[in-house]
Amino acid sequence: MQNKPAQILIIDLGSQYTQIIRRSLRYLGFHSVIISDVGRPTIERPTSILKWVEENKPKCIILSGGSASVYDADAPKIPEEILTLGLPILGICYGMQWLAYVHDKNSIQKILESKSYGPVEIKIYGSQTSLLFRNLGEKLKAWSSHGDSVKYPPSGFSATATSQGGAVLEAMENVTKNFYAVQFHPEVEQTEDKNIILNNFVSNICGCKQDYDKKDVIEEIRENTRKALGDGTAIIGVSGGVDSTTLASILTPTLGDQLKAFMIDTGGMRKDEVERVKEITQKAEINLEVIDKYKEKFIQEIGKTIDAEEKRAAFRKVYGEVFKDVAKGYGATHMIQGTLATDLIESGSGSAGASAMIKTHHNVDLDLGLKEIMPLQDYFKFEVREMARLFNLNEILTARQPFPGPGLYLRVVGVPVTAELLEIVREADHRVAEILKKHGVYDKIAQSIVALLGVNSVGVKGDGRVYGYSLVVRTVETVDFMTVKGFYLSPAICEEIISTLVKHPKIVRVFFDWTSKPPATTEFE
C-alpha cells in the first residue's frame, strides 16, 4: 500500500510470521516490501526477485522463515545471485538454514533433538562485539519454531548464539560479507529483545533511515482505495468490530455515496450487538443498513455439521449469498473488506505470500463477481486500533475486544448449532465480560472466548443427578494475534465465573483454557 521506495526487502519463504517482520519494521519506523518467487505474483511481489532489486535498489535483504526443508525438491527457490549483490542479508529460521546450505550442503541436520517449538533460552556470544546483538545481554528468552537446524557454521561464518547447552546453533554471522542469521524468530513478541535485533540490523548494519510515519496511513488508505474504486460503487459489511468499523469511518468522508455500509445480523452476534453497532456507527457518521432476514438460514446451514472447517465454509457460503443480494440492490461494482494481514496469513491466501493454510476465513478470496478491495490487508489488529485513535473514534470502539466474523457459531463446539445453544453461549459470554470488567481486567485481556463443549457430563443439581454441557473460558494476551499467551485469571475471578455460569440448568462444568498459540489458535474453531 505504501508508495515510498522501500529500503528493506523481505523475501517471503512461506512463514506464518513474514508479515510480522514487516509489522515490526513499521513499529521501528521503517518501510519495507515483501516479495516472493513462491505463490502468485502481485504488484509488490513480482515474479523476479532480482529484477525487483535492480529496479528498486534496497539497502538490505531479510529472508523469512518457512515450513519447508532446504533440501526438499519443492523448497522455496531463492536466487543465489543475491549473495553477490553486496547487500547485507539477515536470515531468519529457514533463512538461516538456506544461508548455511548454500555455503555447505552438509551443515543442515534433521534430528529430533534439534527440533524446537516454543520458548527457548539463547546464550549470546560476543554481545558487546556483534553488531546484530549490540545492547543485549548474554542471555535472551526467544521464540523458536523449526524442525531442521544448522549443525555448524559454514566456512567464513562464526557462531554468535546457541541454546540447549551449546547443542543447537541459534545464530551465526559472516562479518566480511555482512551475512547474519538467527534460528529463532526476533520478529515475534515472545522474543524478549524489544525489537533490538531487527533495529540493529536495519539501522547499524544496513544504514537505513526511518521513513515510515503512521500518521500518513489514513491518507494512504483513502488514496489507494479511491484509486482502486474509480467511478464504481462499493459495499462494505460493518460488524461493529474494530476492523470494519474503523475502515468504514476512514473511507466514508472520502467516498461519500460511492460507499454503501450494511450490517448482517447472522444470529451469532453478541448480546445486544445490533443496537451497540448502530450506536457506534451513528457516532462515526456511517449510514448503516441492518439486514436481519437471513438469521434462520445461517443457523440451518451451519447446523448441518459439527466439523469446524465445514461450519466456516457454510457460514462463508451464506455470507456470500447475502453480499450478492446486497450488491445487486445497490448496483455495486466493488466490495471493500476489513480483512487484516492475520486473516490472509491463516487462510494461506496468495495475497499474504506463501504461508500454509491454518483455517478458512469467511472474508478472504471471495468470488462474488465483484472486484475486491482490502485496504487493511498489510496491517494487524493493534495497528488498526491506532488508526481508530488517530481518527478520533470513540474509545468505545478502540477498546472493544475482537469478535470473529462467524461469531458464536464458532463457539458451539462438537454439537450441531441450534438457536437454543447460541443463546446459552451468548448469555454466558455477556456474563463473563461483566465479571471481567467488574474486576478491572477486561481491558488487559486481548480477547476473551466463551465456548460450549457439546459433550454431556454428569453433574449434581438440586440433589439430583443430571447430564449437561460444559463451558470453557479462554482469556489471552497478544499484540498481533499471530502468537498469543494465556492471560491467567485469579482464583477469585474463576470462582465467580464458575458460580455464575453453572446457574444455567444445562451447564454442569466450567473449564479454563490458557494454552498459547502455537500450538493452539485463538478461537476453538
TrEMBL record:
It is an enzyme of class 6 (ligase). Pathway: Purine metabolism; GMP biosynthesis; GMP from XMP (L-Gln route): step 1/1. One of its GO terms (cellular component) is cytosol. GO terms for molecular function: asparagine synthase (glutamine-hydrolyzing) activity; ATP binding; GMP synthase activity. ATP binds at S239, G240, G241, V242, D243, S244, T245. Its EC number is 6.3.5.2. Signal peptide: none annotated. Keywords: ATP-binding, Glutamine amidotransferase, GMP biosynthesis, Ligase, Nucleotide-binding, Purine biosynthesis. It holds the Pfam family GATase. Residues 212-400 form the GMPS ATP-PPase domain. GO terms for biological process: asparagine biosynthetic process. NCBIfam families: PRK00074.1 (NF000848). Catalyzes the synthesis of GMP from XMP. This is GMP synthase (glutamine-hydrolyzing).
